[in-house]
Each structure stands twice: as C-alpha cells, then as structure tokens.
Amino acid sequence: MAINAIESLPIQMSHTLHVYTLPEYHRDPFDRLLIAQARLEELPILTADPQISRYPVEVIW
Question: What is the pTM of this model?
C-alpha cells in the first residue's frame, strides 16, 4: 500500500456518529461508514458503486 501512497484510516467515534446523520440512499452499513469518513476527513472515495455518488463526497472511478 505504501508504494501507492495509500494509508489505512482508523475508525473514530465521530465517524460512527456521523453515519446516523447521512440520508439513507445507501443501505450498506460499511459503505455508509466509508462515506462518513470521507466527509469528515475530506477525502475522496475510490469506488464503482453508483449509490455513493449520491452523497456529497468526491468519488474517483
């Protein structure tokens, strides 16, 4: 992962709490957690999942 400048992001309580503020466009709890992390940490999400693009996050694919 280091060669691609990819780092793991630990789950914080603020991330889990933010999940509950998201609209329920996406029902997958793990994807919702990724969305919350992306929003709070101001990071893009690398995904081909079209549902995630409904949220105000930068999607790369």
Answer: 0.86
Closest residue by Cα to residue 19 from 47, 55, 43, 61: 55
Residue 7 lies in a domain: no
Residue 3 lies in a domain: no
Q: Is 39 within a domain?
A: yes
Look at residue 45 and give its three-state secondary structure. Answer: strand
Q: Which residues contact 3 (CB under 8 A, 6 or more apart)?
A: none
Q: Which 3 state secondary structure label does DSSP give 59?
A: strand
Residue 39 structure tokens: 């929003």
pLDDT digits (tens, 9 = 90+) for 25-49: 999 999 999 999 999 999 999 999 9
- Number of compact structural domains in the chain: 1
| Host domain of residue 33 | 13-54
